[in-house]
Write a structure and sequence with these properties.
The protein is an alpha+beta fold and 296 residues long. The protein contains 7 helices and 17 strands. It has 3 domains: 2-77, Uridine Diphospho-n-acetylenolpyruvylglucosamine Reductase, domain 2, CATH 3.30.43.10; 85-185, Uridine Diphospho-n-acetylenolpyruvylglucosamine Reductase, domain 3; 210-291, Alpha-Beta Complex (Uridine Diphospho-n-acetylenolpyruvylglucosamine Reductase, domain 1). The strands form 5 sheets. Strands 6-7-12-10-11 form a 5-stranded antiparallel beta sheet. A 4-stranded mixed beta sheet has the order 1-2-5-3, with no helix packed on it. Strands 13-16-15-14 form a 4-stranded antiparallel beta sheet. Bound molecules: flavin-adenine dinucleotide.
């Protein structure tokens, strides 16, 4: 495969330890990881890559379960692309590989409000948009204005926010598009102090979520008005574990790698929780975490 790949300015890493780079620290390698150096590099790659090469895209891997068998094909990460932020009037342009936290902190340092309610979500702008990442009363959809994407043939596509069907934890992004940058709505008002919101959220997360653990955050989506963690507790799943995968004692919708887990432990644990919750409550929980491997 090495010989068929187009020349690029970024970097190819062969047999990249994708699982080890993920927040859950489980799963195998991918054939090749491509870190484009900028948008043009990515476009050139997509235009010249072999037609049968399967392409996947990841952000910070904070919501992804990598299978133990790894991934056949090429995984693209935008995290080394120049992650520029530029503020203009009522919007900011942000590279999709940039950390959501970096954008929030940069905006806050200028007393600019945008999506500071998402403080603590460890994803990239691209990953947070695909997931429509959010908290109980705010989500990416609330501050997104438009997206620039690139399709698998290297064509650029602009999508205004109102053309996206963004719903709970689903950005409605067609899965043959790579988000290259986002335009976020911003505002600056004397009465709004994003730094105090951030300080409050930092304290709240420290008190309610496991810190310093290998986890993807919430594993399951809430079901209508019902919290997934309540359903898990009600079904008696809050102390379950399989191999090295365990339900967190601090937040039972968080699954953690206690040290030596395999992806298969998480898959089994997720299946057991779903079966027990269904038997107890009649509700089939839906995963919020994504298992990478479908491809384009
Ligand atoms: C401690 C912790 C707390 C968390 N708290 C929250 C929370 O409060 N709310 C919440 O919603 N989530 C939360 N999460 C989950 C996770 O951080 C979010 O879903 C985040 O938005 C994922 O972003 P990522 O960059 O890591 O994406 P990844 O996990 O790498 O990928 C997620 C999906 O996005 C796709 N993707 C990524 N980048 C692109 C791109 N540029 N173009 C196209 N597709 C792309 C991937 O293919 C994949 O389908 C938490 C996770 C952790 C570990």
């Amino acid at each position: 495969m090495q010989h068929d790949l187009p020349g690029i300015r970024g970097e190819y890493v062969f047999d990249f330890q994708l699982g080890r780079a993920s927040f859950l620290r489980v799963g195998g390698t991918c054939d090749v990881m491509f870190f484009p150096s900028d948008k043009d590099d990515l476009i050139q790659f997509l235009q010249q890559k072999p037609k049968d090469l399967r392409i996947y895209v990841v952000g910070n891997l904070s919501n992804v379960l990598v299978p133990d068998c790894g991934i056949m094909g090429c995984v693209v990460s935008l995290t080394r692309m120049a992650g520029e932020i530029s503020f203009h009037g009522e919007t900011a342009s942000v590279g999709a590989g940039l950390g959501l936290q970096d954008f929030i902190m940069e905006a806050a340092s200028r007393r600019i409000s945008s999506c500071e309610y998402l403080f603590g979500i460890p994803g990239t702008i691209g990953g947070a948009t695909v997931m429509n990442a959010g908290v109980s009363d705010f989500e990416m959809a609330d501050s997104l204005a438009s997206l620039n994407c690139i399709d698998m043939r290297g064509n650029e596509v602009n999508i205004p926010r109102d053309k996206l069907n963004m719903t709970y934890r689903d950005g409605g992004i067609p899965n043959d598009l790579i988000i290259s940058d986002a335009t976020m709505r911003i505002c600056m008002e004397p009465s709004i102090d994003p730094k105090s919101t951030i300080a409050h959220l930092r304290r709240k997360r420290l008190l309610t979520q496991p810190v310093g653990c290998s986890t993807c955050g919430c594993t399951f989506k809430n079901h209508g008005g019902l919290k997934a963690w309540q359903l898990i507790k009600e079904a008696g799943c809050d102390k379950l574990s399989v191999g090295g995968a365990s339900v967190s004692k601090i937040h039972c919708n968080f699954l953690i790698n206690t040290g030596n887990a395999k992806a298969s432990d998480f898959i089994e644990l997720i299946g057991t929780i779903k079966a027990q919750v269904l038997a107890k409550t009649g509700i089939l929980l839906e995963e919020e975490i994504v298992t990478i491997g479908g491809g384009y």
